[in-house]
């Protein structure tokens, strides 16, 4: 029998039949490891039986749960406060150029125009990426992954080879001019 089975039997002596108890007793007489484990387990069980166990005060669970709810509410309020502060700060940062551009037609109008151009550029970039993904998405179905990876590796290898050859041609030409 396996040694692990005897270790499991040590912790469940009450559930064993007489044959299993006899096998366990025979094993623990010859196995130093299981003897040590059985002694430690018996000492632990004796300690557990002799200890005085205290129960919590009346209403402990309710007090603990109410404190937990209060703590959760405080955490939610703290998160809401920071979210509000970040949102208000961001709105304030973007409101300053708007307010100043309304008051005067000075260089602040240029700043506001720059913000607008950046947002338009971001929109155009997003539209271009969306368009390219729309075009390239069917290629993922048509070209298996391994073939696509092979094409990419081949392309990059070809570019690297071309660069090495161009460098050699440049070195040969520069030696020809030196001679």
In a few lines, what is going on in this structure?
The protein is an all-alpha fold. The protein has helices spanning 3-10, 18-30, 32-50, 60-103, 107-142, 145-178.
Which descriptors would you attach to this protein?
179 residues; 6 helices; 3 domains; flat; mainly alpha
What does this molecule look like?
The protein is mainly α. It folds into three domains: 48 residues, no CATH class; 67 residues; 36 residues. Helix 2 packs across helix 3 and helix 4 crosses helix 5. It starts with a helix and ends with a helix.
SSE map:
Blueprint: H1 3-10, H2 18-30, H3 32-50, H4 60-103, H5 107-142, H6 145-178
Helix pairs in contact: 2-3, 4-5
Calculate Rg over CA atoms: 39 Å
How confident is the prediction overall: mean pLDDT?
A: 81
Strand content: under 5%
Helix-strand sequence: HHHHHH
Q: How far from one another are the termini?
A: 88 Å
- Poorly predicted runs of 5 or more residues: none
What is the number of beta strands?
Answer: 0
Largest sheet: none
Overall domain count: 3
**Structural class by sheet pairing and helices:** mainly alpha
Indicate the overall shape.
flat
């Amino acid at each position: 029998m396996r040694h692990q089975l005897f270790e499991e039997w040590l912790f469940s002596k009450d559930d064993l039949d007489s044959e299993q108890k006899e096998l366990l007793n025979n094993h623990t007489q010859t196995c130093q490891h299981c003897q040590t484990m059985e002694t430690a387990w018996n000492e632990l069980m004796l300690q557990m039986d002799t200890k005085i166990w205290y129960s919590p005060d009346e209403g402990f669970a309710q007090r603990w749960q109410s404190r937990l709810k209060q703590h959760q509410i405080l955490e939610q309020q703290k998160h809401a406060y920071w979210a509000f502060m970040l949102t208000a700060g961001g709105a304030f940062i973007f409101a300053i150029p708007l307010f100043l551009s309304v008051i005067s037609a000075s260089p602040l109008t240029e700043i506001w125009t720059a913000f607008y151009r950046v947002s338009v550029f971001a929109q155009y970039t997003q539209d271009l990426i969306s368009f390219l993904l729309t075009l390239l998405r069917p290629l993922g179905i048509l070209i298996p992954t391994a073939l696509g990876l092979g094409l990419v590796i081949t392309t990059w290898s070809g570019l690297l080879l071309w660069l090495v050859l161009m460098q050699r041609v440049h070195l040969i030409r520069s030696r020809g001019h030196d001679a």
